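Ex. 9. Protein: ATP5S synthase.
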Amino acid sequence: LPPGSCRAFWGWLNAVFNKVDYERIQAVGPDRAASEWLLRCGALVRYQGSPKWQQDYNGLPTGPLGKYKIEAINATESCIMYRGFDYLDGLEHVTDIRLEKCIYIQDECLQRLSETNNLQKSLLQLKIISCGNVTDKGILALHKLTNLEYLYLSDLPGIREKETTCQVLQRALPNLELELDLE
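Predicted C-alpha cells for ATP5S synthase:
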C-alpha cells in the first residue's frame, strides 16, 4: 500500500460508520438508532435503570419501541465524529458523556453537542480527556449546556488559554463544578 493509503481507508470507513440513517431513526426510535451508531463506532451505552454497560452490537436489547433510553455514553477510543452527531438529537435522557482518546472529536463536535436541545436539558456530566483536536473554542462552546453540573478536562494540548477559558465558562455556568488536569 502506498504511504497514507491506510489512514485514508480508515477515514473513509469511519465516515461510513458515522453516516446518519434517518429512516432507521424513524423505524426504531432515536435511542435504538443512536445505540447502534455508538456501538458500531466502538463506544458503550448504558440504559436507564441498568448498571451494565452495553458493548455488544449483536446483544442490543429488544423490546417495545422506546423501551430502552440511553442514560450514559462512554466513547473512549471510539471513532465517533461530527457527521454522526445527528443521532444525538432525539436522545432525551442522557445525563453523562465521556469523550476520551477520540481522535475525531474536534471543536465543531462540542459545539454541535452543546446546541442539541435535548442535551441542553438532560446532560449533567461531561468528561473530555486526551482529545487532541479540542481547543479553547470547543470548550467555550459548552456554555449552552445550561444544566451541566460537572465538567472534567484532562490532557487537552489544544487548550492554550486555560485560565481565560475556564473563567468565561464558569461565568456562563455558575453552578458548574469544573475539574482540570491540564498541564
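Check your answer against this statement. DSSP finds seven helices and seven strands in the chain.
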